[in-house]
Design a protein that fits this description.
alpha/beta; five-stranded mixed β-sheet; about 40% helix
């Protein structure tokens, strides 16, 4: 990987080499991750599809997110990100499910869930991981940072470093 390589280029080669497929479940990024992945020629060999599940109803109907968990934890939560990744993987029959849910802003934040709060999930044949990040940009910047972090999470998995990624989630 050279300094000028985009992450969508970096992940393409190992996805192809390992014959892995990916499905996406995006909320706050509105399809930006899918857009970036599909900017690479030949991406149809590994990108199976994605769901922009902006509403809770879409998360439930299309990805199988639990109504109870949405009610208890909210759409922007670790458990919902995990279920979104799992739902994308299952819906498309992909090896890898990648998800993002967050508060892009400028409104919608609370003291416990500020603008910029994002949860990213990945489910693979080897297990699952959810990470928490808080961005401090405007709406477009928060979306871009979330998409970048999702691709970084995918790259970490493909490099065998998923266990080294800091979740950013405090243990209870």
């Amino acid at each position: 990987m050279s300094a000028g390589d985009l992450l969508e280029q970096v992940v393409a080669q190992p996805l192809l080499a390992r014959n892995l497929t990916i499905a996406l479940a995006e909320s706050c990024t509105g399809g930006l991750i899918a857009h970036r992945l599909t900017n690479i020629a030949g991406s149809s060999a590994y990108v199976l599809g994605g769901v922009v599940s902006y509403s809770n109803e879409a998360k439930i109907a299309l990805l199988g997110v639990s109504v109870d968990d949405l009610g208890r934890e909210g759409a922007v939560s670790a458990i919902v990100a995990r279920q979104m990744a799992s739902g994308a993987r299952r819906t498309f029959g992909a090896a890898v499910g990648l998800s993002v849910t967050g508060i892009a802003g400028p409104g919608g934040g609370t003291p416990t869930k500020p603008v910029g709060l994002t949860y990213l999930g990945i489910e693979t044949p080897d297990g699952a991981k959810v990470i928490r990040r808080v961005w401090e940009a405007d709406r477009e910047g928060n979306k871009a940072a979330s998409a970048q972090a999702a691709l970084e999470l995918l790259a970490a998995y493909l490099a065998g470093r998923l266990d080294q990624v800091d979740t950013g989630i405090e243990s209870a």
